[in-house]
Amino acid sequence: MKKEVRKKSVVPIYIVAVVCLLYALFFDLYKLWNFILLAVVLVLVYLIASKLFPGKKVIVDVPVEEQSTGNPEVDAVVREGKTAMKEMGRLYSSIDNPEVKKRIVEIMDISDKIVKNAVSDPKDIPNIKRFLNYYLPTTIKLLNAYDRMAIQGIEGENITGSIKRIEEMLDTVVASYKKQLDSLFADEAMDIETDIIVMDGLLRREGLKDKEF
What we know:
By secondary structure, the chain is mainly alpha-helical. Helices cover 73% and strands 6% of the residues.
């Protein structure tokens, strides 16, 4: 299970260390009141620095007890999905672009639902495996390339062009993933339609139907 948390920055600690060093240069630390004053100053400095440098949000795994479904094929799909989600979480933490991070969250949410469908409806496993073996790995490959290029800090025909193409492609990826998830419910939708037709026929025969569905 994934959860978004805020990872604290180490900058406030460094600032406190610098303030402590400067304080020692100008005040006599063998005096008790100087120690007390230093403690107060350090607490205030840490609180202020923590506000200025709050850290960044990351996606982490929330440990849960792993249970077998009793179906080795389903278990394999679930494990493969968890591995992919872990890498997506790492990319979310590494990439700074807020729009790309938003797309990553959407992709992770839809992918998680697709994988979970293997548990609720194992007959969808062939389609889900195709998703896990090609679509998701290719998406992760593109995001890794985006991450490597974005940290170069320079603009160029290849880097800038590739970054832009990947950003534009992510909208298509999200839309395609939604269609993939929707297609997994095609059989269920057909079953529902059949049940409605059967129910409609029963109501007609029993004289209980007042109007058309």
